Amino acid sequence: MRGVDKGLQLIHGQPMVQQVLNRLQPQVGQVLINANRHLDEYKGFGVPICSDSISGYAGPLAGIQAALLQTTTPYLVSVPCDSPLLPKDLVTRLASAMHQHTADAAVAVTGDPDQVQRHPVFLLLKSELRNSLEHYLGSGGRKVDDWLASLKCIDVQFDDEMAFTNVNTPEDIAALPPAN
Q1: What is the DSSP track for 136-176?
Q2: How much helix, strand and coil, in percent to the nearest 5, is found in the chain?
Q3: Reduced to 3 states, what is the DSSP secondary structure of residue 8?
Q4: Strand 33-34 to 10-11 pairing
């Protein structure tokens, strides 16, 4: 996106992060935004903000860690700000699979069984994994999938691949359908 803050980019006249909030807020009790710049703009969305405690850009796990440090609930769900079409039943389905399989975490996947596309930042996990994540990050680890491989993590199949569309360019923004 040429260095601009993706979450603040307008899609059909509304910031992308607002579209994500519109889909996520009905699914959860509390929302927290992880942001490392433009904090005043993000505060305008009316939810608490947290920033990475690891210096430099350490990737999505640093944001998940920052959220876990502020989470008081037994579970944390993570979604990216650049996927405004996320499923309206994401949390319910991840939670159901997680409990059914007595897992530590649940991740969304799409595609055919022989060609699965994992979406590791569409993640539900137990908040008690805070120490595990801190240890992984402290050892230099940065890859979400590698950390998840150390846990009892269940993949949850979703049929609608479009729901996990990642917006990375102005052309991606132009191609998105209006939110419903």
Answers
A1: HHHTT---HHHHHHTS-EEEEE-S-GGGG----SHHHHHHP
A2: 40, 20, 40
A3: helix
A4: unpaired
Most confident of 17-26, 48-57, 110-119: 17-26
Per-residue pLDDT at 1: 58
Dist. CA 48–CA 65, nearest whole Å: 15
What single letter denotes the amino acid at residue 45? F
Instruction: Catalogue all structural domains in the chain, each as residue range(s) with its CATH number.
Output: 6-169 (3.90.550.10)
What pLDDT does 43 receive? 97
Closest by Cα among 79, 80, 142, 145 to 116: 145
Tell me the two tokens of residue 127.
């908040």
Q: Considering the chain, what is the average pLDDT of its residues?
A: 94
Q: What are phi and psi of 55, to 5 degrees?
A: -75, 155
Q: What is the per-residue pLDDT for 130?
A: 96
Mean pLDDT value across residues 72-94: 97
Enter the tokens of residue 180: 């419903």
The Cα 85–Cα 24 span in angstroms is 10
What is the structure's pLDDT at 94? 98
C-alpha to C-alpha distances, 140 to 49, 53, 105, 115, 148, nearest whole angstrom: 25, 14, 21, 30, 15
The pLDDT value recorded for residue 129 is 97
